Amino acid sequence: MGWWPFARRGGPHRDENAPLRRDTRRWLSDLREACEACHDRPEAGRQRVRELQVEWREAHLLGVLDDAGHLGLERRAYRLLNQNDEAWLMWLDHLAFWQPGWTPEADEEQA
Fold it and tell me: 28 with 100: CB under 8 angstroms?
């Protein structure tokens, strides 16, 4: 029956093995949740950030995570990993740090 209006003919076929795309907001949300779960144990939080970095790098190599998103996540990870415990808590409380589009230059302008 060729009259059925919901049939998919000649349209682009979806690759069933294609990786699911996660947007930068989801990656950023995962980072924030991991850090806040370990807010009282910064070293455990840093370990989780390192694990997430491996996931980001794999996603970036597969083309699931774009260059700009990867750079933004790596910038945040750098600050979280290279600070003392007091600065760790400061970054967790910094609302702009967790917003998409955050750059270190924006923080320097505000300071």
Answer: yes
